[in-house]
Amino acid sequence: MTATIALLGHPVAHSISPPMQQAALDALGVDARYEAWDVAPGEVAPAVERLRGEGVLGANVTVPHKVELLGRADQVDSLAEQVGAVNTVVPREGRLHGANTDVAGVLRTLADAGVEVADAEVVLIGAGGAARAAVVAMRAEGAARLTIANRTPENAAALTDLGGDGMEVRIAPLDSGSPLLRGAMERARLVIHSTTLGMRHGPDESATPIPAELFAAGQAALDLVYIPEHTPFLRAAEAAGAQPIGGLGMLVYQGAESFRMWTGLQPPTETMFAAARAALSARSAEETAQ
Ligand code: NAP
Question: Which of 35, 116, 211, 281 has a CA 20 to 30 Å removed from the CA of 221?
């Protein structure tokens, strides 16, 4: 019997995960279909019950259901609890285990780029869902100090509780004239961008919250935005001699970690990168044609 892996989200039609995960399953000869389930708010409970059915290997969970799954899985791992979101579900002996692989996605992307986070000072721009995974990743990796700058300071303040284990968390205004932000940018080994600025169809596709003059040569700049691959934030970093790192790695590696959990197999990450890039190009061509 062909097994099922589901993606629970709303909307899900344009997700990159189905082509990326199906390519990985096919490459390793796993007899499974990765299906997008469009689950409207209010319909999460029956969708989660379907995951208990025979032949279901697991699921991904995306916006807007990641937080609700925390309370609907039978058990959640410590990273999912810290981030406050479940993006992966694995059925084991009739129980649904909720996990979060976004943290692994951030860390593997940085490791690939040769960025050492231990004892480093880090600046994080943004304080939404993706930012939470980044804070937990920085703490797990032993960053010394994290400065968070966000348009709405209260949302940044809400993330300070995620510090600990020796990582100090500070708040700075998201204002390029702020001495607090400028000082943190000067000292930072790594700057992570997690707002929707610069994202296709986001609030402003041409904007970067950090101009080139604030970056320092040699520091690493990770943008969690992955559409487009080369964002205004990355271009500003590059212009200042910083090392630009795109967000596609996080997308692929979080998926790879989920794949490993469902199948117990080593995920074919090269295949996943190629499939994700092909899906993004196809989507872009479709939009241009419209
Ligand atoms: P979210 O929870 O909605 O958070 C949005 C963030 O953007 C908040 O910090 C918000 O600030 C800020 N923002 C929105 N409009 C703004 C504006 N006009 N000016 C300044 N700041 C603004 O979104 P999310 O889920 O964290 O996603 C954020 C980005 O990360 C998206 O581009 C998403 O595609 C990407 N992402 C990538 C991956 C990956 O695998 N690479 C995974 C998850 C997300 P306020 O708090 O002031 O509203």
Answer: 281
